[in-house]
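Interim report to the steering committee. The following record documents the input for Benzoyl-CoA 2,3-dioxygenase component B (469 residues).
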Amino acid sequence: MSIDYTERIPNNVDLSGDRRLRRALESWQPRFLQWWGEMGPALPTQDVYLRTAVDVGREGWAHFGHVALPEYRWGIFLAERDPDRRIAFGQHRGRPVWQQVPGEYRAELQRLIVVQGDTEPASVEQQRRLGLSAPSLYDLRNLFQVNVEEGRHLWAMVYLLHAYFGRDGRDEADAMLLRNSGSEDSPRILGAFNEETPDWLSFYMFTYFTDRDGKYQLGTLKESAFDPLSRTCEFMLKEEAHHMFVGTTGVDRVVERTAQLMREHDTDDIGRFGGIPLDVIQKYINFHYSVSLDLFGGETSTNVANYFTAGLKGRWQEERRRDDHLLTEAVATVQHVENGRIADLRLPALTALNADLRGEYIGDCATGVTRWNRILTGYGVDTPLYLPHVGFNRQVGAFSGHHVAPGGRLLDRAAWEAGRDRWLPTPGDKAHVLSLMRPVYEPGRIAAWVAPPRNGIDNRPLDYEYVHF
């Protein structure tokens, strides 16, 4: 399953054998490059030390080298096909997976692909200007690596739309380049992808929390009975892992530098010493975590139940689940607001699949908080970071329209307004963080508000010239 880079569009799906599809994608390619030029990274560079996929296998699948960003070879890569793969869940369980779209599920599959695909260019747009304030060449390179891979993930979804959904699919692929993050007239489909990412603390939080949502959404689509979608998502997950690494270690380094300044100056008030106070870090966690929870949708969903029953979208690690994979009799417990208090509610498991996936995500997010608190403890800081209650600052689902404190207490509007500035970033917090965002482009140097990384990229030293201007 090595990738053919002799083609105008690198691929391992035999585009050369389908002239009609190849022409359609080659006509879309200039529009993509125009979008990249207008909405991609704003910082001019000569080239960047990037990894480029050369194989879809588990080992040795990437090549590293300096590449000019506009010349990056975006392409279409699917994981290797398993000829014996069977549908693992739902009413078609045990039957061979589909290589074509069943007519009765055409609209639903197209919608799933469009919503996923729309998130990929959105994050590039959100991060467009971050290079202008990069804290180091190491971080700048990681930003650009994330950007080019999000662009490739867009290609992955566009290929499916072109290859399997005819004129409607081509129109949807065109529309992905017409919507823009934050646009009043044509915003991105999901709310979190219309939020600003104006600073590097926001970027680290985004790649930790929001890209982690992407991991779980891709994980459910990887289970799909539509095999080309499954194989596409399987390979995307390999690349997505780096994005979450950037977020995890980025927050690690911010927390470490904050703890260093707290110990050095014996105070929590480290803003005047050029650091990001711990309470501000917590506010950014609260915001990005709660916004990312909204991406999972409402706790109950008949649409998602229908997707599962039809075999379109499974659960996280479906085949490891020890149940009948049908869920017709299973029940689940979710939280909601009832008679002025937060209470448990038992529901059919089929309709609570969003809550099931969100629970997997929450457990994963908690591992990062454990890491960050271990760093704080190592510096003698006994104020732990935490994940707020699942109902905090929610705009979607059972807690939408209610006010919940980070600790889980139900509040009236007055109490919420009184506490908001303690829990969410204020204009003053954002202004302080933004004031620290001064670019550092000298090899080996790093901004004073963040600790250096533990290791370089691809066994390169930290003072390697990852980006040439």
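The mean pLDDT is 96. The committee is asked to note this result when reviewing the revised timeline.
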